[in-house]
Design brief:
Strand content: 5-15%
Structural class: mainly alpha
Number of helices: 6
């Protein structure tokens, strides 16, 4: 996978309070979290590649003082134009993941085969309050 260019920071420079390379070990994370917290961020964007960014976020979410902790490795590739977005009709139908899968099946198949069923399950079981999905609106 190509590395996103440093220019990915340019479109969001006005909103950026800091950035750091991803070459650190778990032993460095205490100091890194302290460094991040000094900037008092509202949102922390973690782009370290899957699964490293997820693991970092889970390990450090209690130590980081921000409203949002977002894993977003591929996001920077879209911002810079390194990756092409899906056609508008696929975006509108929520099928951008399918477009990406068609472009990179070897890399993405197992990720989506595992995560999509879990996401669907969580969507169906946690989106609606208990019973709200089956009760017609206005019925008592």
């Amino acid at each position: 996978m190509p590395r996103p260019p440093a220019s990915c920071a340019n479109p969001i420079r006005a909103f950026r309070s800091g950035r750091r390379h991803g070459y650190f070990s778990e032993l460095d994370e205490d100091a890194l979290c302290d460094e991040i917290n000094l900037t008092q961020p509202d949102v922390i964007w973690v782009g370290l590649s899957v699964p490293r960014e997820y693991e970092f976020a889970v390990r450090n979410r209690a130590r980081l003082d921000a409203g949002w902790l977002v894993t977003c490795g591929g996001c920077f590739n879209f911002v810079t134009g390194t990756y092409r977005r899906a056609p508008a009709w696929m975006q509108a139908l929520g099928l951008e993941w399918l477009f990406r899968l068609a472009r990179e099946p070897r890399r993405l198949f197992w990720r989506y085969a595992v995560t999509n069923p879990i996401a669907i399950f969580l969507l169906l079981t946690r989106t609606f309050p208990q019973g709200a999905a089956t009760t017609p609106q206005g019925a008592s």
